[in-house]
Write a structure and sequence with these properties.
The protein is α/β, with parallel strands linked by helices. It contains 25 helices and 20 strands. Helix 8 packs across helix 24, helix 21 crosses helix 22 and helix 23 packs across helix 24. The chain is globular and about 95 Å long. The N terminus and C terminus are likely disordered.
Length: 692
Amino acid sequence: MSSRDAVRLSCESPLTALKGIGPVRAERMESAGFHNVGELLHLLPIRYEDRRRVSRLEDVREEGQYTLTGWLEDLRPLRISRRRLTLVRGRLVSGEQSLRVVWFNRPYLSSQVESKVEYVLHGAVRRRADRWELVNPSVEPVERARLAGRVVPIYPSAGLTPAELRRFISSAIDGLDSEQTAEPIPFGLRERHGLPCLGPALEYLHRPPPEADVDALNAHSTAQHRRLAYGEMLCLQLQLALRRRRVLQSRKTHRYDLGPELQDMLESRLPFTLTDAQRRSLDEILRDLDAPYPMMRLLQGDVGCGKTAVAALALAAAAESGLQGALMAPTEILAEQHYDGVRRLLGERYPIVLLTSSAASRSESRRRLESGKVSLAIGTHALIQEQVRFSRLGLVVIDEQHRFGVEQRRRLQLKGDHPDLLVMTATPIPRSLTLTVYGDLSLSVIDELPPGRSAVATRVVPREQREEIYVWLEKELATGASAYIVLPFIDESPAVDAESISGFGRELQIRFERYRPLILHGRASSDERAATMTAFSSGDAKVLLATTLIEVGVDVPDASIMIIESAERFGLAQLHQLRGRVGRGQKRSDCVAIHGELAAEGRQRLDVFAGSSDGFRIAEADLEIRGPGDVLGTLQAGLPAFRVADLVRDRALIEKARVDAREMVESDEAQARRLAFALGATTAGSDFLAGA
């Protein structure tokens, strides 16, 4: 569509409405994630180049981006066989000035460029030896130049060539009636947040006007960027608010007996006193349990804050009310730890079964559970198997929720009639992610550690200082200390520069033989893991060589040393979780991270780890370093891949969208549903709509 007289397009128009896109190419674009014109236009430039100023060759006095004009001469292709690289070298000439030019892997240029045609080139100028050089510039004849003299959008790779993307997006903008493009967001919300309409925003971002602020465009901080990001966030928050509304409108058939004497009785069974933060969280949970609609709550806290004790009391409240409770953990070792911990906290008052893939007497446990003779079931994914049935399931607790998918959570909930749901995570989550990943849940935060938790002294050292660390460890073990040594891999691999159990771990076994070193990893059987943990917990073995299997749920108060080998291989959250395995008793505790060669991000990650023990601060830093895409990928499946919004940059918009969505759902649920659907038709929110 090359003129305003062409057929008008909307965001819902099929891709085949664009010139040059037939059924075959449209199918190819659909596989790349583009199903209509709106989705194509929501692919925003990753950066913008300012080509408004055309410089003279004599103006080139420092490195940087330049737009230059002149004639190309002496173009010669060169092949560097050692690097399998083709170069084209030549000169850009204007008057008496010239500048060397080089292109990589574009051999066709030497035959396409004409000596008598003036060209406009844009690219990076660098200093090489004693001469300036223009590297890999774009090339256009001056008389047909479309990219010179303006702000030029640069698009990401998206299954199409840059030229194809530019051509199709330009065609879409030409055909889009931006003033008449349907704007789903009500005027009041746009006015409240200072946002433009959708159509003009899209046109501005794909065709910035001559007066555009390039720095603001590259920072994605324009009002136009905010409009598109807000649309995606509002779509998601509406879905979360509607989902929460459905729960609040449902009515559970079970009831709890939650008189004030119950909480006193529950707390009296504990061998310690709850912290203020634990008591506050328990109050919030009990208040939800007493409500007529199912609880949907996230219990979040740092390593060692005492979430398990709070969850155990909630499960006890269900059992005291004649209901059954279920606690699902992602690994057998964690389920076993919970089973032992809950029995230790609550005594023998409540019949409890352990259900894992390898737990003994599974059929007998299932029979007692179905008959109602068992109050509490603790287990792994085995709990959601079809043959596991409950008599009267009232409360579902899911630990380390990010290890489970939405469907697994739902399958456990379906084993009861609208049971209450408590989700726990020992991985602190930044608020911006909490509002997206768990935006349909109420939030309880335990932001206080129990008394008696000792600080963990943290050191980060290069591999060259490893011997010094192990000499120190030998001295500590001789005084009665117990230590974890974590290695990233079970098997050694010549292709990976990292330590393993089968490689360096065997050397450590020999070195510390007098301290009965044991090995723990995911390939060990349940019985082997249980025997290993019993020996280490009792002090029979003083050294435990392990993989990240011990990342969560392992509680050995006498263990006071954590050594992490190849620390650059672990994420910040993993490092913090591993450090949390020590500092649980009265002894001084140490954590040493030994690293190999570091990239810039690895150095930044380890600096943060060494400098802070605050899990929430570490979580925010992790989000900043890795970006929301990687962090979201580890938290939960089924979330939308935002095309525009960024969970770091757009934190303020998330808060605003959440408030707006909840207000709208409360005031007019039907309108909220229509708006969510309309936004989903033109944003990445449609991915979420499909799975909601």
